[in-house]
Amino acid sequence: MADVSINSDHILLNDFRCDDPALRELLLATPETDRVEKLNHVIAVGSRGLASMGIGVSVAQVGEAVERIVTSATDRSERTLTALLDEGTRHIATVFDPDDRKSVVARTLSELDGTIAGLLERLDPQNATSHTGTLLGRLDDALAEGGALDDRLNSSLDPQAEGSPFAALRHELETGLRELRDLLIKAEGRSEEAERGTVKGFDFEDVVEARTRSIASGLGGCVVERTSTTSGANGVQSLVGDVVVTLDDGFRIVIEAKNSNKIGLAGSTGILEELDRAMANRDAQFAICVSARDAYPNEVGTFGVYGNRALVVDSGDGDLLTVAIRWARMAMRAATQTAAHEVDTDLLIGRLERIRAMASRFSKSKRALSGIRTTVDDVRADLDGMRCDLLDLVDDAQRELERSDTTHRPDRELPIRVA
What we know:
The protein is an alpha/beta fold. Among the domains are: about 5-55, no CATH class; about 200-400, no CATH class. It has 11 helices and 8 strands. The protein has helices at about 20-30, 35-55, 60-95, 105-125, 130-145, 150-155, 165-220, 270-280, 320-335, 345-370, 375-400, and strands spanning about 5, 10-15, 225, 245, 250-260, 285-290, 305, 310-315. The strands form 2 sheets. It has a 6-stranded mixed sheet with strand order 3-4-5-6-8-7, with helices on both faces. A two-stranded antiparallel ribbon has the order 1-2. Helix 9 runs parallel beside helix 11 (about 375-400) and helix 10 (about 345-370) runs antiparallel to helix 11 (about 375-400). The chain starts with a strand and ends in a 17-residue tail after the last helix.
């Protein structure tokens, strides 16, 4: 049985038991360390409630009273909120209703209409006092004949006015046209000169082709092609290399014919570089330049060998061209030879030096032949003898090569290089 002790400042409960499920759930949800404080709070709240409503009121009556109070308060709140919402709706409708002249939207639209009307009036080009009318009036004044802008445009566009852009353009055009006229005059002169030189060049190419075919017939098994008007391996615009001779062993000799007053030797525009391009363009292993005139530098003479390139002066009878072609055939075979014994290069170089010397004498004698009629027979005999000697020297060098067994390797470098 529970025992309740009431003291001056507290109440002490012994063996107290409560079967109220709500209190039980409340205390279960409260941490154990706070349960005593929570229970004190529940008792205090309950005691104050009972004291305010009367000691004899039951818990059920308290609940009903609280529910009535809450329901009444809720109803009043809903009615108040509904009234506020209705009032707010009516106020918003009044503020934003465009048909209500007192609404904000109606007043704003009215003000906007006035602003647009004022703007259109200020921009009206028909109104002389508007901004646009004022601008157009000033432009009319400026563009009118004798106006400020008219004067400035006339002075700027006048090609005769000193300092105007058109005057400067006129001066540049006149200068350019004069320069173009001078260039055309010079080009016309060069074109006529080049045309004459080209005609002479083609004529000499015909002579070289005919003589080359005659020489090739003596060698046997050769194929001669005229290639001066056909492109080669260097591209469709590359015509370098006038005549190509394919020997019976597959080696190719390209011949470039020249009929000009001066032929340079070195550099990108020199004949040696041109012969290199000709070999690449015509897939040849040896190149010969035949000049109709004594146009080479003095160090070349009438017959010069530069590796796998030969330079000769031959006006068209083909004697020195014959020597050059035979030398080319011998040199290419020497470059591909694997011999049982070393080739006597000293002998070959000696023969080449004698060929060069005799070629010089040969050319001088030919020139003398044309001017000395009284000794024609003696000079011709001398020429015939030297021609035979020249061919014998080349054949002598060829026999030196043929003394050994040979195999062909076109990529081997020539063993003889005399300049």
